[in-house]
Design goal:
Number of strands: 18
Cofactor: Mn(2+)
Shape: globular
CATH class of the largest domain: Alpha Beta
Protein name: ATP-grasp domain-containing protein
Radius of gyration: 21 Å
GO molecular function, one term: metal ion binding
Oligomer: single chain
Strand order of the largest sheet: 15-14-11-12-13-16
Keywords: ATP-binding, Nucleotide-binding
CATH superfamily of the largest domain: ATP-grasp fold, B domain
InterPro entries: ATP-grasp, ATP_grasp_subdomain_1, CPAse_ATP-bd, PylC_N
Number of domains: 3
CATH architecture of the largest domain: 2-Layer Sandwich
């Protein structure tokens, strides 16, 4: 390993930035790592947790790659570790440019990123890999959407609507005609995901009609599977998402469920993904885990895998550097391990003085 290794971590304002930095600094090899972060916003927590910070244009900007390259050269960065979905494709397309400068990028090849980020193509990958997935329809019009929802049992059953291309909870809705009563009104926090058919159609009629996936609603618990895949093997670490707020895991419990591990590894091979990434599964009424989507990047709560004995964030950096990484399965004692996220923060004075983090 190179002395004074420098890693540029994008998404300095991402929810999981503290965990990613923690995993790099507390790597099992005891290596000293200098961390540079960047984000399109200036005042983000990663700015104060890293050794250096830069503000960059959005991934959609034509200046994005040039900006990242400039930072990497100026800081003598060895590896770029992306955390933002929108950045993956431009970085994958620019791999030869970075490689020519001796800079490694822990991102999969362009064809893999395209398939993994496409919520329809990922279902086709699941089918080809013989991995369970929810019954789904790809729709391009109001008539197709309504017909597909009816095919899935709406309004008797809830139905999921989501864009073919999106990240986080953007565009996700649950079609439901369920009537709220006073008890539910007073006791439940609204998640704003549920919507009635007429309300959804009223929104969608106000612009160009998007490609939408109409999908079977899965009522069971949700699982994330963190995956590392490299030249010398792959490993998958499932975790139950016991508590989710605005799409972010606040309570995760490691569950060494062999079926989930195998499902994730089979799809990863089909997509030819590399480095650190993950998949989302949800249980059907029958308790069958079905694939929802893929995050072909470092995930927000991936640090959980480190505490289970698999620092896959660090492994991704080593793999990018061309070092031999032989991934090992989580330690048996990690099964049922609980990871709890909490609200923390940093106080920043106008003179630059910092208190925290807490």
């Amino acid at each position: 390993m190179k002395k004074d290794l420098k890693v540029l971590v994008t998404g300095g304002g991402a929810p999981g930035i503290a965990g990613t930095i923690y995993a790099l600094r507390n790597n099992p090899d005891g290596e000293s790592v200098k961390i540079v972060t960047c984000d399109m916003r200036d005042e983000v927590v990663g700015k104060y947790l890293a050794d250096k910070f830069y503000q960059v244009p959005s991934a959609e900007s034509p200046d994005f790659i040039e900006s990242i390259m400039k930072i990497a050269l100026q800081e003598k960065v060895d590896v770029i570790l992306p955390q933002v979905t929108q950045e993956l494709l431009p970085l994958a397309e620019s791999l030869p440019l970075f490689e020519a400068k001796g800079i490694k990028v822990a991102v999969s090849q362009k064809p893999s990123i395209i398939r993994a980020n496409d919520k329809w193509l990922i279902l086709e990958a699941a089918k080809a890999s013989q991995v369970p997935f929810p019954k789904s329809y790809l729709t391009r019009s109001e008539a197709e959407l309504v017909k597909s929802a009816n095919e899935l049992g709406y309004p008797r059953k809830k139905v999921v609507i989501k864009p073919r291309l999106s990240s986080g909870l953007r565009g996700l809705r649950i079609l439901s005609e369920e009537i709220w009563n006073v008890k539910r009104f007073l006791e439940e926090k609204p998640d704003f995901l549920e919507i009635k058919m007429d309300e959804l159609l009223a929104i969608l009629r106000n612009g160009p009609w998007p490609e939408l996936i109409v999908q079977e609603f899965l009522p069971g618990m949700e699982y994330t599977v963190d995956v590392f895949r490299g030249r010398n093997g792959a490993v998958a670490i499932p975790r139950l998402r016991e508590e989710i707020r605005t799409g972010i895991t606040f309570r995760a419990r490691v569950k060494l469920w062999k079926d989930l591990e195998n499902f994730a590894l089979k799809i990863a091979e089909n997509l030819d993904l590399r480095y650190a990434f993950g998949f989302q599964f949800k249980l059907s009424e029958e308790g069958v885990p079905k694939l929802l989507e893929c995050n072909p990047r470092v995930q927000g709560t991936m640090v959980t895998a480190m505490f289970a004995g698999c620092n896959i964030i660090w492994w991704a950096v080593k793999e990018a550097l061309g070092e031999k990484v032989v991934p090992k399965r989580p330690k048996r004692s990690a099964d049922n391990m609980l990871f709890i996220r909490y609200w923390g923060g940093i106080a920043v004075y106008s003179n630059g003085k910092i208190y925290g983090p807490i």
